[in-house]
């Protein structure tokens, strides 16, 4: 099995522009939602390719940014208490959560 990501530079730039604007508008609060969006953005554009048959199966991330408000608030508090150091761990935990809630179609 091989993994193939189909990310165009225009998709990436568009995604980043949206989140930079949201970060400024919300005074940085949007940055706690960004890791969920980023993980979902990458996973939904990734497929698993069978090396022997060449069959490509798309990955789907089933997370919803707004259904994880409790998780976001918890990590927001951890990040504030640790003066931002907790955000580094938060990013990894979000990826762990996103991959555990993904499937292959």
Automatic annotation (TrEMBL):
It holds the Pfam family DUF6693. The chain crosses the membrane at residues 12-34, 72-92. Keywords: Membrane, Transmembrane, Transmembrane helix. The keyword Membrane applies. InterPro entries: DUF6693. This is Uncharacterized protein. It comes from Vreelandella arcis.
């Amino acid at each position: 099995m091989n993994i193939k990501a189909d990310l165009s530079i225009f998709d990436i730039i568009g995604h980043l522009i949206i989140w930079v604007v949201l970060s400024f508008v919300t005074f940085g609060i949007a940055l706690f939602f960004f890791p969920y969006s980023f993980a979902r953005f990458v996973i939904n554009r990734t497929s698993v390719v069978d090396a022997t048959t060449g069959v490509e199966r798309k990955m789907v991330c089933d997370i919803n940014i707004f259904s994880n408000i409790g998780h976001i608030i918890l990590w927001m508090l951890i990040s504030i208490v640790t003066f931002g150091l907790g955000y580094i761990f938060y990013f990894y935990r979000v990826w762990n959560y996103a991959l555990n809630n993904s499937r292959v179609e």
